[in-house]
Structures are given as structure tokens and as C-alpha cells.
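subagent[fold] <- orchestrator: predict structure for attached chain, return C-alpha cells only, no commentary.
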Amino acid sequence: MSTKEAKQGYGQKIASRSEDFPGWYNDVVLQAELADYSPVRGSMVIRPYGYALWENMQARLDVRFKATGVVNAYFPLLIPESLLQKEADHVEGFAPEVAWVTHGGNEELAERLAIRPTSEAIVMHMYSRWVQSYRDLPLLINQWNNVLRWEVHTRLFLRTAEFLWQEGHTVHASDAEATERTLLMLETYRAFIEEDLAIPVIPGVKSESERFPGAKDTYTVEALMGDGRALQSATSHDFADHFTRAFEIEFLDAEGERRFGATTSWGLSTRTIGGIVMVHGDAKGLILPPRVAPVQVVIVPISRKSEDAAAVREFVETVQRSLGTDLRVQADFSEGKTPGWKFNEWELKGAPVRLEIGPRDVAAQSVVVARRDTGEKQSVGLDALSGSLVALMETMQTGLFESARQFRAENTHEVSSVEEMRTVLDEGRGFMVGGWCGGAACEAYVKEQTRATIRVIPFEQGDAAERVCIVCGSRPARRVYIARAY
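subagent[fold] -> orchestrator:
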């Protein structure tokens, strides 16, 4: 191994996933070249491989948004303090996380500018200018951007000071229409996360204490990670007329009456990349869902004799051309690494399928197909290869989802008391499902005693009358999912 490779971390051992999950996670993110630490506190550099993964996710989610009528725009990074101050709950909720610009060059600014922690204030200001009549509604806009929240405790992808996301902001003529849009976007997230990222989620609503600042209701999709902690994977917020009153977003309705509109916002960030790592990864590193993997098929040439190298390379290029239009394919001709080294490297990076091609394969006009998820290998002829791999990608995508769903089922525990919760947390982690009366005191008691929180009140409730609160014993009680979370 060269000095350069040693510095880059190639071939370094990753921590044990079962014994040191946080260390394993960090090692995988760094060594698989998804991201690296930056010199700015709490921020990260997303490396090309990680950014390609984000681009694939972004492309698939953007198509889903546009199918619902959403269009993209862009709003400024800097927000005047006076705009933030227009909505008290919103400002209070984000105050500890806001970073401020106080100088432009050598000049002190007359008004501080916030580096956006989220864009409701600047977006609502612009909407107040654009919305005048019912004919202007609904206004359905999304932006792909970065935000900055001055986080104290950070972790690559999962919680960083600066991160990438999308944030959608819509205005509607009625509260009912806004609620309908909020739920539509939640379903869009559910479908994307389950179908494209192969991560099963629990959709539902947040408790009052967990709502987004200023929201009437916050809806969420919650996922279970490989260490039994929960991850809030996306949220959709129903603001009713909260922001439209604060920012005076009024319109003339069809009867000529002036009315306030109703707004929503919804977002998904690069923290979902962390979710992919933690849900699907194994002791060897990443396992990427085929639909978003930067490289779906990696081809590794094997030639021990120089006289075989030319024939193997020519066949590899033939295979690559035959697959190029159907799949994202990369041939690894990098020098100074053995085939075994490349196998390990691409297993770490989570490429769904590896093709091994040596002199015997050239002679047989076939390739060895190795699956990243199961490790199974089979020989496939060149004529059947393209169709076989396309089908295999769908099989693997479904398999990853089912495996994650099985893991969630095995780590979801019905509990009837806080004592039972402690037992679950002592023996491991996971979702704990129990009854909650809806009282803030009972919710706070659970958090105090266990450091777990109510992650989601699922839409599917069953018979609430038969359920009792795990704290106070009263009924009826809502069915809730409780967990320690990222």
C-alpha cells in the first residue's frame, strides 16, 4: 500500500457494527468516501461519491414533486432580522440555532441578516407580494438549497451545522386545501423513502411538543435504524393561517371578500443518506439500494498474465458498452490494486453488483455476477446479461426493503408501562408501541425516565377505547411509537 493510499484510509479496518455502531457508522461514511470533515466547525464536505448518491435521490424525489404540480424556485440565503421577528413562535423555536451576519466587508450592517435556518420568513414575505387573488392560488413552490443551524453536537449527515435539503412552501385558499397538500407531500415522502431508498417508515403526526415552530400540525415518517434508534426521515407541516396572518398574505376570493390564505412547508435532507447507511449497511460497509446507487454495476478485470490483459480489457469494454444504456456501470481499471483489494473496496462502497471478468470468462463469453446484499455468485452469458441485471436490480431493491421491514418487526415491542420500556432499553433498542393519553405531563415523564420520546402518532390507530396510557393508566389512549432517536 502506498503512502498516499494509507493517508486516504484505503484498506483500514472499520469498527464492528455489532459492538461499536457509532464507530462503524463513522468509519463507513469516511472510508466509503461519502463525506469528510471540513475545517468549519460542525460542517462536512460531501465527496463526489456521496454527492452522486444525493443527486440520484434528488432527481427521483424531484420527479415525484413535479407530478403533484410543484415547481422549483430559489430564495436568498440571507434573511433580514425584521422578517424573522414577524412570527414569534417561529423565531423562538430557531433562536438558539441562528447564525448572524453583522458586517458586509468592513461596514457594520444597519440590520442583522440571518443565515437561513429555514426559509418560511423570506418565502412568506415574497408570497405576500405575489398572492392577490384566488386566481393566484394554489402557489406550489419547492427549492433545493442549503441551510445553517448552529448545532452543538454534530455527526456526519445525521446532524451537521450546514446541510442540504429541499423545502417546499405552498399557499392555499382554505385550511382544508392546505391540510390535503400537507398529507399529499407526506405520502410522497413515504413512497420515495420506501420505494427508492428501500427504508420502511411509520407515517403519522407529531405530538404537540414535537411540532415544528408555528405549525398547527407536523406530520412525519419515522424509520428504525440498524442500532434500534429512530430517525425522523422527512416532515410535512400544516400551518393553517398562522404565517399568512403574520405576513399579511391576503387574497380576494371569488365573492370579492378579502381572506387570509393557508400555508404548508415540507422537507427532506441529506440526513436520509445517513439513514441509508444505518439501515442497509453491514460489517463490510455500505449496501446501497440499486435505484439510487451512484454505481449500480462495477466491473473488476482479473488478469495475472500480461498476455491476458489486453483480451480481458477488450471484453470488459464490450460488456460495459452493452450495459451502458440500461444501468450505471463503471469498470475499475485502476492500477496498483489487486482484484481482491478492489472487491473489498467496492463492497465497502456498496455497489449493488460486481462483475468479475478473467481469461476463462472471455473464452466462455460470460461474466461472474456477485451480489453485494447476499454475496451470491453466478455465471451469466453476455447475451443474457443486460436483462438479467435489470431484473436483479429490482429483486435486490425489494429484498433490501423486506429485510429492513423484518428487522423493524423484530425490534418493535408492545409495552404497557414505563418499566417495560426500561426493560426493552436495557436489552437493546427499537420501537416501543404503547398507549398515551395525550397529556403533556405523561409525555414529559416518559422522556425524563427513559430518554426516549414519542416519535409518531401513527395514522393506523385501531380501537383506542381498549388502550390505556402507559404512564397514568387512563383511557382512551392513542397508540404511539416511542424510541430513542437521532
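orchestrator: received. Logging for downstream: The longest helix spans residues 382-410. The chain has three domains: 16-280, 297-391, 412-483.
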